[in-house]
From TrEMBL:
Region of interest (Disordered), ranges: 32-73
Domain Tim44-like: 92-238
Source organism phylogeny: Bacteria, Pseudomonadati, Pseudomonadota, Alphaproteobacteria, Hyphomicrobiales
Gene3D superfamilies the UniProt entry points to: 3.10.450.240
Protein name stated in the entry: Calcium-binding protein
């Protein structure tokens, strides 16, 4: 009888053990939707979401000023030579020193990489006449200029086709800091295929096949120490 009782108890515990192991395996072997996604080196890490822009603000989201440093008091730092970013001892280097003193988390190389994405997004949105996208990316003055060009194109019944072949370079060519407002000027070298068609579909400018070299110079601005890490696109010009 004792043997029968022992065997029955053993069977019960074995059954419970098998059940527990099965449940653990079923949970650990499934994706619940809360796992961290694979690391993407092109995405900027954010420890906290960026502050919402105020009404009327138009911003460009670029890396460079970590939100964990936002609002922090300026920190005295040794000037850096910024070799490979800007010419050492140049006005741009001194400007980067001024930014770095107030925001030591600033990374000009990451900024330049983000500026490439902003450039392609804005140029593509302009070609499509995508006002919604442009409104969120441009300062009011720049947006007004783009809007006038789009309206002129629409009145003429024209459409623009633009395809990016490559962005060969996005280099920082100027940095200026005044009254805590930083301005960074970026020179872009890109290859595009662009063509303008009239209402009948005929090409009136450019070519749908030819690759052209394009140089643009854009300037972004931001108030240093602000909780908002976004940069406004405040000026554009064709470069040489």
């Amino acid at each position: 009888m004792m043997q029968d009782s022992f065997d029955l108890t053993t069977l019960i515990f074995l059954g419970l053990a098998v059940f527990v192991i099965w449940k653990l395996r079923s949970v650990l072997g499934q994706k619940t939707g809360s796992e961290r996604p694979p690391f993407n080196p092109l995405m900027r890490r954010r420890e906290e979401p960026p502050a919402a822009p105020r009404d009327g603000d138009n911003v460009v989201r670029l890396p460079g000023a970590g939100p964990e440093r936002a609002g922090a008091a300026p920190v005295a730092t040794v000037p850096r030579n910024w070799k490979g970013v800007v010419e050492p001892n140049s006005a741009a280097a001194r400007g980067l020193d001024a930014i770095f003193q107030q925001e030591p988390g600033f990374d000009p190389r990451a900024f330049a990489d983000g500026a490439k994405l902003a450039y392609e997004t804005i140029v593509t949105a302009f070609a499509k006449g995508d006002r919604k996208t442009l409104k969120t990316l441009l300062s009011r003055e720049v947006a007004d200029g783009f809007e006038r060009a789009i309206q002129t194109r629409e009145r003429a019944g024209q459409t623009v086709e633009t395809t990016f072949v490559s962005i060969d370079k996005a280099e920082i060519v100027g940095v200026d800091v005044r009254n805590r407002v930083a301005q960074i000027t970026v020179r872009y070298l890109s290859k595009l295929i662009t063509a303008t068609r009239n209402a009948q579909g005929a090409v009136v400018d450019g070519s749908p096949e030819a690759v052209v070299d394009v140089t643009d110079v854009w300037t972004f601005a931001r108030t240093l120490g602000s909780r908002d890490p976004n940069w406004q696109l405040v000026a554009t010009e064709a470069g040489q």
